[in-house]
Sequence to fold (359 residues):
Amino acid sequence: MYRLSEKAAAIDPYDPIEGIYRIRLDANESFLLPTESDREKMAQAVLDTALNRYPDPLAKEPVAAFSALYDVDPKLVTAGNGSDELISVILSTFLQKGERVLTVSPDFSMYRFYTAITENPCITLSKNDDLQIDVDQVIETIRREKIRLFIFSNPCNPTSLGLDRAAVRRLLTETEAMIVLDEAYMDFWDQSLLSEVEQYDNLIILRTASKALGLAALRLGFAVANERLTGIIRAAKSPYNVNALTQTVASIALRNPLYKEWYPELLVQSRQQLSEGFAQMAAKGYIQKLYPSCTNFVLIEVEDAPYFHRELLDFGIAVRCFGNNRLRITAGTETENKEVLSAILSIAKHRLEEQEGTL
Ligand SMILES: *Cc1c(COP(=O)(O)O)cnc(C)c1O
Fold:
């Protein structure tokens, strides 16, 4: 009988919510689709695609469109099958056997997941109660533990908090580690380091089409770094990593500035609706805390988050639960937001009544 390696046997799969829910606020997706006229162009582009041919290995069309939209040199950009693929490529390429990775917690769970696959030792620093990254502590840990690569999201998923540019620059200049800066949510905030990427020899910035741009179904992400690092990422990725349909369809969206200029604005307005609702609930003690968000989702604290999570699923509403007391809720349509706010309020009231009943 084939004996599995311990590593293979220990893989813990990423586990998104399955099942059909009326309201999906669990995956930080956009609630907006591309415009009708762009969708028609996309349909035509699909019809015109040479399905018998391999796609362009360097995805030059979407890379050019991304570069124009974000004002970066296309020579610094590599496209991936989602930024997820790029995380995996970067960790398995830049690290040698035994070299150490640093992550912080809470942060995007895939970082640790991929280091488990590459078998690089991974040290994880717990964030303080305020969930902010302590830059001094990170720098000190990188030096003391001889960390070769630090990967984190900014703004952070799931905390929704951001680290300002000056703080990120300190990580880049005061350490010799590779800094992988995942800016998946930076379309919702204004502290990107994209325009400075060439100034650093130890910086890789990740961006994605999945969140603000609303193209999660296509699987398209970008790594932006100086030419030397970009050459290595391009050499290491699998040759035809971004399929032809994604390349052609995404290029149409990336050539229309609407999705970068206006869609994030709409998603931020929606998130503000959620934040205002939860701020009122926090003021009245129905929830414990609301974190200030730089993203298209909010993080709140409640007593017994798994209970809220289950009850919300019974209402047909999916959100993400973290540990015993945190819920992450993606900004949805106005109606979806109203529903999730009133569902959480009624669950909280019900819980309080039950507690009073047992006194
Ligand atoms: C959603 C998300 C991604 C995933 O992006 P894809 O391009 O869809 O793979 C990457 N990083 C963070 C922090 C995310 O929340």
